[in-house]
Amino acid sequence: MVALTLGMPGLRRAPATVDDRPESPALVDRHGRTARDLRISLTEKCSLRCTYCMPAEGLPAIARDRLLSPAEIARLVRIAVRDLGVQDVRFTGGEPLLRADLAEIVARSAAVAGGASLSLTTNGIGLDKRIDALVAAGLTRVNISLDTIDRDHFARLTRRDRLPAVLDGIRAAHAAGLTPVKINAVLLPETLEGAADLLAWSLATGSRLRFIEQMPLDADQTWQRDRLVDAQALLDELGRRFDLTPIGRHDPAAPAEEWAVSGHEIDGRPATVGIIASVTRPFCAACDRTRITAEGAVRSCLFSDAEVDLRALLRGDADDEQIADRWRAAMWAKPAGHGMERADFARPRTSMGAIGG
Ligand code: SAM
Ligand code: SF4
Question: Which residues line ligand 1 (CB under 6 A)?
Answer without folding.
Answer: 46, 52-53, 92-93, 95, 121-123, 145, 184, 186, 212, 214-215, 217-218, 352-353, 357
